[in-house]
Design a protein that fits this description.
Layout (H helix, E strand, L loop, with lengths): L13 H22 L4 E6 H4 L15 E9 L9 E10 L1 H9 L6 H15 L16
Helix pairs in contact: 1-3
Length: 139
């Protein structure tokens, strides 16, 4: 039975993974290795990589670390195993990568407030009277 198309089917939370896992590890562990002038590698899944902002590449000789992007291929025959294959390698700088990964992509505040107000209005039984999230006290 295939439940992958059903509502509420569990899926990876890549946004949380980059902010809560990759960035802190890059900051702390990567910071130590960077201070020691040691090179390192980070292996990640290709679908997770696709959610990250583009990391600025540098020549291999100038790189502080390599990002190894892997793809998991399903078995091609009944008794075969999954195959983990290297899809690409990105050589980058510690400072540039940390800056790109930890800098949020900021949209327009007007769009955020409009969308948030629409969600608040959906939850209310009656439309607000002179009260919006921009002026919650009616001023």
């Amino acid at each position: 039975m295939d439940w992958t198309k059903e509502p509420n089917y569990p899926r990876p939370d890549f946004l949380s993974s980059s902010r809560k896992r990759l960035a802190p590890q890059l900051l702390f562990k990567g910071g130590i290795l960077h201070a020691w002038k040691k090179k390192s590698a980070i292996a990640i899944d290709d679908t997770f990589y696709a959610t990250l902002p583009e990391l600025p590449p540098v020549p291999r000789e100038q790189a502080d670390f390599a990002l190894l992007v892997y793809h998991l291929l399903p078995p091609t025959a009944p008794n075969d195993q999954y195959q983990l294959t290297l899809a690409k390698t990105i050589y980058t700088s510690f400072t540039l990568a940390l800056s790109v990964i930890t800098t949020p992509r900021v949209g327009r505040v007007e769009d955020f407030v409009r969308d948030l107000q629409a969600k608040v209005d959906e939850k209310l039984e009656h439309a607000p009277v002179n009260r919006t999230i921009e002026s919650p006290f009616g001023h």
